[in-house]
Fold this sequence. Notes:
By secondary structure, this protein is α+β, with helices and mostly antiparallel strands. The protein has nine helices and 16 strands. It has one domain (6-309): T-fold (Roll).
Amino acid sequence: MIKKIVCVLFLTFTIFGCIHKPYYTETRLIMGTVVEITAQDKDAINAAFFEIERIDALMSSYDPDSEVSRLNKKRELKVSYELLNLIIAARNFYDITGGAFDITIGPLVRLWNIKEYMQMEPERIKIPTQAQIEKVLSYTGINFIEIDEKDSIIRLTDKRTRLDLGGIAKGYAVDRAIEILRQSGLKSALVNAGGEIYCLGKKAGRQWTIGLENPQKTDAFPEVFRLKNRAVATSGNYEQFFIYRNKRYSHIIDPRTGYPADNNISSVSVFAGDCLTADVLATAIFVLGEVRGAQLINKFEGVELKIITR
C-alpha cells in the first residue's frame, strides 16, 4: 500500500517558563517507503530504525535471503517464532475479513503488473485474461498454508503459492519500533512508515497532530486529528492506478476475485490501538467497500474508520 495522504503537522508553540528536551526527526528509506521517526533520543531513534531494518530483512519477499523468500522457495520451513505468529495473525485476519485480506496474493499482484502498466502507453497494456486470473486464483488462499504451531513449521501445499507480507509487515514494524522506543525509556515519539503512523504519548504536553488530506480536494487543508497512544493507517487508489479502455484499475487487488478492487472509495483511514491492526483493516476495508467495511469495523473494539469516496 502506498499511503501519502497522511501528513504529520508539527506545530510550533512558544511556551514561556517551560523548557522541553528537543525532538529529533530522522528519515530513512526502508521497506520500499520513507520511514520517519521523531523522538527525543538519537540513540533510541537509531535502535528503532535498526529494528525496522531487521524486520524488513526477515519478511521482505523482494530479498532472496529473507526468511519469507526461503519459505517461498522451499515450500516447507521451520520458521522463527516471530514469523510464525505473524502468519497466524494473517490467517485470523483472512477469516474475519472473509478473504479480503490474504497474504498469498503475491502471484495476483505480479500477474497484474500494475506498477509497469502505470508507465505504459494505453495501447501497449494487456490486462490479464479471465483464464489467467482463474489459474492464479486456483493456488491463492489461506487454505494453501499449513501451520504446525508446535514445531514452528510452515508448509505451502502448492508449489506455486507465494507469501507476500507487504500488507501486514509494515504495520508490525511500526509497532516494534514503538516498543523499542518505549524500552529506551521514552514516553513520547512518533513513527511514520509511508503513512502507517503510531503516536506515542504527547509531544510537549499536547497530543500529536495528524493531518489527513482529501484526495478529492487536494487544495483543501488536511483534516486534523489529535492522537495519543494510537495508530492510523491509510489505504487509497488515488496514486497507483492505470486507465485501460476508459476504466480505472487500482493497485489494490481483491484476493477473492483476482481483479483490482472496484468501488467508489478513494481512501480509507483506520484508527486503532496498534499499527498492525490499522494496516490490515485499511486494506481489507478498501477491498470490501463502504458498507461491508463499516460492518467489519464493528467487530473490533476501539477501532475507528474514516472513508473518503469519489
